[in-house]
Amino acid sequence: MDLSHKQKIAETIFEHVREGIIMLDRKYKICALNKAMEQWTDKPVSDLIEKDCKEVFHDGMGICPHCAASMTFERGEMIVTIQKENQSEAAKYAELSAYPVRDETGSVTGCVIFIQDVTERMLYQYKVTETKEYLEGFIDNSADAIVTSDIDGMITSWNKGAERIYGFAKEDVLGKFFPFVPEFLMEPELEMIERIRKGEVLRDIETFRKKKDGSIITVSLTRSPIKNAKGDVIGISCISRDISDKKRVEKELVRRDQELSRLFFISSAMRGTLELDRLLRMVLTAVTMSDGLGFNRAILFLLDEKEQVLKGAMGVGPSSPGEAGEIWQRLSMEKKSLSDMIREVETGPQRKDSFFDKLSMGMRIPLHEETILTKTVKEKRFFNISDISQEPYSDMILTQQLGTEAYAVVPLISRDTVKGVLWVDNYYNKKPISDEDMKFLAAFANQVATAIESARLYEQLAFAEKELANIFDSIPDMVFSINSDYVVKNINKAVCKRLGKRPEEIVGGKCYEIFHGKSGPWEECPHHRTLETKKEHVGEIDDQYLGGTFISSSSPIFNMKHELIGTVHVLRDISELKRLQERLVMTERMAALGEVAAKVAHEIRNPLISVGGFAKRLEKKLSGNLKEYADIIMKEVGRLEGILNEILGFVKEIRIVKESVTSERLIDDATSLIQADIEERRITIVRESDGPIALYVDPARIKEALLNLLTNAVQAIGSNGTISIKTYILGTEAVIEIADTGEGITDENMPFIFDPFFTTKKVGTGLGLSITHGIIEEHKGRIEVKSSPGMGTTFRLFIPVNTMNRTA
Length: 808
Known about the structure:
Elements: H1 3-16, E1 20-25, E2 30-33, H2 53-57, H3 65-75, E3 79-85, E4 92-102, E5 108-117, H4 132-140, E6 145-150, E7 155-158, H5 160-166, H6 170-173, H7 186-197, E8 202-210, E9 216-227, E10 233-242, H8 244-271, H9 276-288, E11 297-304, E12 309-316, H10 321-334, H11 338-347, H12 356-361, E13 364-366, H13 372-379, E14 383-385, H14 396-402, E15 407-414, E16 417-425, H15 435-474, E17 478-483, E18 488-491, H16 493-499, H17 503-506, H18 511-514, H19 526-533, E19 537-543, E20 548-558, E21 564-573, H20 575-621, H21 625-651, E22 659-662, H22 663-673, H23 675-680, E23 684-689, E24 694-697, H24 699-717, E25 722-730, E26 733-740, H25 768-778, E27 782-788, E28 792-800
Parallel strand pairs: 23-25
Antiparallel strand pairs: 1-2, 1-5, 3-4, 4-5, 6-7, 6-10, 8-9, 9-10, 11-12, 11-16, 12-13, 14-15, 15-16, 17-18, 17-21, 19-20, 20-21, 22-24, 25-26, 26-28, 27-28
Helix pairs in contact: 8-11, 8-15, 9-11, 9-15, 20-21, 22-24, 24-25
């Protein structure tokens, strides 16, 4: 691969890296910047070259590379700053990493600034490139050596460039065969001379040459024949250029490109996960892989600020020389790259080295101790310890446990705060840790710190979200949120349970369809009211679609601009509470009425017995009309006694005696008692059943309840009508449904039909439905009524059939 091709690769990387890169000289003039910089300025990149950085960026609204560069020029070291851009509608934050550019003397001649958008927590991407102009300038500063010879290779001319490059004076080489050709290249040299004799031109040949002092240099040469007027080859022209420096630069560029490529790849891989344990494993894998940073062992310590201690979080590396050799041999045989290894870490199980990892995780270094690790935290700088015996601050317990003789540590710094320490060594191959290794390790550590901080924040957020989700789902009330377009956005388990649907069947649907069964917004809906008023709404709501009465709380949700974007709702079902309240009111009312009725019946019964007795005596002694009058008195007394017995039966506490009986038998027994009346009125009875239902009830009491309902149905029809009787199972309840085609019940009378002594009939006490209601409640059941004037009435008796009733 030639230099220009490598330059193009460097330029392509420079232009396509996602982070912004800008290069400034000491006068803050913009030397170069990439396409990604357009996101930080409103001008095209082509318009900014050679412009003053302060004029372009120093406006107080956007980012300012000048400010980052000025600190770098002042301190002569890398500077990382966080800046805020206020030009866009939403503020953006950028992390500017400024690196000094030094010349051969070590003086800072410029500055390279990497600009990373950290608004969405993007990791740093560093890309250093040498521009084409710089490389060409470096090459142009070297003068070419121009040498001529005869066709046998004897030198005929020698310029100053050749003298400077090869060290030979002109008088040392004239008339001699090429003195700068090394012995090991003599045979190829003679072959080239032969080719040139034949008229061939050899261009841009890279080869080695020997200087006067015996050192070998790399040159690029072009050889061509020198011809006379006849076209005969009479000599050889050789133009050579010392490219030793160029080769060193290329080698350095390749090395840097490899390092940056590794950093870029590792950074990309780390961005792909926010799971802390997996991230740490990836980091240490990258540190110890040959395609990564190439250290033998690595330990990552995390700082516990609360306890003020460094804790070993993870360690990667062989636990013995034998294991080290086995691992390196396996990796060599399998030819696994960093990409392959990180992919294994990402997708594979979280395997941990049995010994070294456990040893690392057991380490604790208190910050109050004076050690290299604690100094790394306090001073926020790296240390390269080449010999622990010469370092008084080496942690002897740590080094004894690890058996190391030399190691290096770098702080993990994010936002000027130390998050931990990365410890590395080359315990097995004893390779010294160079300054270049440390620079690369420090650059890598900056990205690691940011990644760890992101992972920790993600873990905290994930834990908080999980905790809130558990709380959200454990709430027994229905909790859900709806946006301003009436779309259901979030629900808890209680909603699914109530609606009998899966979450995916609810979320995304319109709330008025899901909760109210309507095709448009319901005016009584709490969400609808909150959208209109933009205020919290709390109240009681009856929803037939949901089948109950609810206490509803609807609260508005506002965005950062205080715009209403939705509502959050809490629905508590109070249907059972309402029923209990109604039962309590009815029980209290019936208890009061029963007490009064019992007293009245008791006071009337004795005089009534006397009247009846004397009426019987008079009947025996009277005749004619008087006898008939006495008979009427006796009949009315009998009717009054029946009413008194019914009243006393209503107020008297009756002990129920349960036994197993079928629903069919109960209905048969009740209908048989009114069969004659049914036939006389020409009423048709229609029976429908899925089969006999086994009940555990008091047969006499249930039969009395059924008889009351059937009698009311007969009286409501009058004649020529139909009574339908259905029995079926609904959940854990048996349902006995009695429907008639009678006159129905008006809306005004419906609330009072179970009240004692309420009746619309000309005769009767109005106790039948009250007694029926009480009987069903004795059996832990309930009654539902549906009726419309002129459309008939339907009574549904719900009686539990679960085994719990067998213990009653």
